[in-house]
Structure formats: C-alpha cells, structure tokens
Amino acid sequence: MSALSSIATPTIDTVGPTAASTAELLKRGKIKETAEKFEASFLSIMMQSMTAGMKTPEIGGGGAGEDMFKSLLTEEMAKHVAKAGGIGVAASVQKEMLKMQGLKE
C-alpha cells in the first residue's frame, strides 16, 4: 500500500483557462475584429467622398485604371487608419456590441 500512496493523484488545473473563458475570449476577439472592419468601411466611404471632387492632372491622369486604383488605395488607407486606432468609431461599436452580448468591457 505504501507504493500506491506515493503515486500522486491527478488534480484539476484551476489556473488554466476554462472552456467558458476561452469561448468568451474568442467572442471578444471577434467583436473587436468586427468593430475594426466596420470603422474601416466607414472611413473608406468617408475618404472616397473626400477625394471624389479632386481633379486629376491632364497629362498622365484619368482613365478607368485610375478610378479602380484610387478605390483600392482608399480602402487600404482606411484599413490602416482603423488598425492604428482610428477615430474612435471601432471603440464605440465594440463597447455597444459587448453590451449587447452581455459582456463587460
């Protein structure tokens, strides 16, 4: 019996993340990502409106290719601005989405 008593009994690890906390972390990450995408879309639309009235130079400017490139460039700039902290839209959206899911900030 003494040989058996020296074998450690398995214990439940209470320090590691539980399934519920892991699920909540995943949900929070998804909410943050969605809020950033929303802000990027908002900024893209705003930036496209800002640049719509800009005239292109006569030489070397204009054409269908430029319009397409300008649109893609605007989208990428908006994504970078949103990732870098944006203008606060993502934070507000994230706060409301967390509240709707019953999660605290």
Structural write-up:
InterPro entries: Flagellar_prot_FlgJ_N (IPR019301). It holds the Pfam family Rod-binding. This is Chemotactic signal-response protein CheL. With 105 residues, this protein is an all-alpha fold. The chain has one domain. The chain has 4 helices and no strands. Helix 2 crosses helix 3 and helix 2 runs antiparallel to helix 4. The chain is elongated, with a radius of gyration of 25 Å. The N and C termini lie far apart (53 Å).
Note the total helix count.
4
Structural class: mainly alpha
- How many strand segments? 0
What is the rounded distance between the termini?
53 Å
- Low-confidence region ranges: none
Element order: H for helix, E for strand: HHHH
Radius of gyration: 25 Å
Beta-strand proportion: under 5%
* Helical residue percent band: 55-70%
**What characterizes the major β-sheet?**
none
Q: If you average the pLDDT, what whole number results?
A: 83
| Domains (count) | 1
**Any idea what the shape is?**
elongated
Descriptive key words:
single chain; 105 residues; mainly alpha; Flagellar_prot_FlgJ_N
Secondary structure elements and pairings:
Blueprint (H helix, E strand, L loop, with lengths): L1 H4 L13 H33 L12 H20 L5 H12 L5
Helix pairs in contact: 2-3, 2-4
Compact description:
66% of the residues lie in helices and 0% in strands. The protein has helices at residues 2-5, 19-51, 64-83, 89-100.
